[in-house]
């Protein structure tokens, strides 16, 4: 879904009086598909105290994704790590699927001969 808008794909919002360990990331042109899977990946980090997201309104295609960390760890670090880990999982699923499809097609060709 990303890339259909003309504005930035990502914004950060930090409440006044807080340091970088509590940040809301606004992801434009995204929905539950990214929100829930990214939340799962970020929550695997033991330094994350809170992670959640919400869809602002059904007619808007953006999510507010909030991360709060323990100690001095900036919230952007587990956000970045979560995105990278999620990309790794997606790549593994894609590779496994493509390998299985190749094996299936080879098996079907063998049966046809």
Automatic annotation (TrEMBL):
Gene Ontology terms describing biological process: transcription by RNA polymerase III; transcription elongation by RNA polymerase I
Any single Gene Ontology cellular-component annotation: RNA polymerase III complex
Keyword Ubl conjugation set for record: no
Localization annotation: Nucleus
Pfam family of the protein (one): RNA_pol_L_2
Alphabetized InterPro entries for the sequence: RBP11-like, RBP11-like_dimer, RNA_pol_Rpb11_13-16kDa_CS, RNAP_AC19, Rpo11-like
Domain of life from the UniProt record: Eukaryota
Keywords: DNA-directed RNA polymerase, Nucleus, Transcription
UniProt key word Transcription: yes
Gene Ontology molecular function, alphabetical: DNA binding; DNA-directed RNA polymerase activity; protein dimerization activity
Domain DNA-directed RNA polymerase RBP11-like dimerisation: 22-95
Major localization listed first in the record, in broad terms: nucleus
Family as reported in the entry's similarity comment: Belongs to the archaeal Rpo11/eukaryotic RPB11/RPC19 RNA polymerase subunit family.
Name listed for the protein in its UniProt record: DNA-directed RNA polymerases I and III subunit RPAC2
């Amino acid at each position: 879904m990303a890339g259909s808008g003309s504005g930035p794909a990502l914004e950060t919002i930090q409440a006044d009086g807080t340091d970088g360990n509590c940040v809301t990331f606004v992801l434009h042109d995204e929905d539950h598909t990214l929100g829930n899977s990214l939340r799962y990946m970020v929550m695997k980090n033991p330094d994350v105290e809170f992670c959640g997201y919400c869809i602002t309104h059904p007619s808007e295609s953006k999510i507010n994704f909030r991360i709060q960390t323990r100690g001095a760890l900036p919230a952007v670090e587990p956000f970045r790590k979560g995105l990278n880990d999620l990309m790794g999982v997606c790549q593994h699923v894609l590779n496994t699927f493509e390998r299985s499809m190749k094996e299936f097609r080879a098996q079907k060709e063998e049966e046809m001969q």
